[in-house]
Amino acid sequence: MNQAYSPNGYGVPPQTGYGAYAAPAPGYGVPQYPGAMPMPMPMAQAGAKNPGLAVALELLGGFFAQTFGIGHLYAGNLGAGLGLMFGYWALTAINVVLCFVFVGFVTWPLTWLAFMILSSITASNAAKRANAKALGQAY
User: Fold this and answer.
1) pTM strictly above 0.70
2) Which pLDDT score, from 0 to 100, does residue 126 have?
3) What is the distance between the alpha carbons of residues 82 and 8, in angstroms, rounded to a whole number?
4) What ranges do the domains of the chain cover?
5) What gap in Å lies between CA 93 and CA 85, rounded to an integer?
6) Which contacts of 133-138 are long-range, i.e. CB under 8 A and separated by 24 or more positions?
């Protein structure tokens, strides 16, 4: 048998006849070190959603534009994003009317604070759920 140079310890396939190669022997091409496993795919791939960015979009949209749901839209959760957006605007309209009897001056900031906290938490979870779904994992 002809022993030739074999880089990285992969070995040489067996030869038959007049120098023609036969089918590779079982195990040929497998690294010669134990515990060899394929590298996992990195998370930074197209379509991966960053939970921190989803939270930032929720907070910035809510703080500067009184628009909640942007983080949900980023995470691909269209129904929840639009529901939060129009739901907050509907509650704001009710609170504006309640300001005429001074109750709205209490309920409006409380509504805004509740939306800031809850929509940020749910936007982060929506982004994590979208990543798990993209990888085929259960969340």
Assistant:
1) no
2) 93
3) 56
4) 1-37, 51-134
5) 13
6) 134/47, 134/48
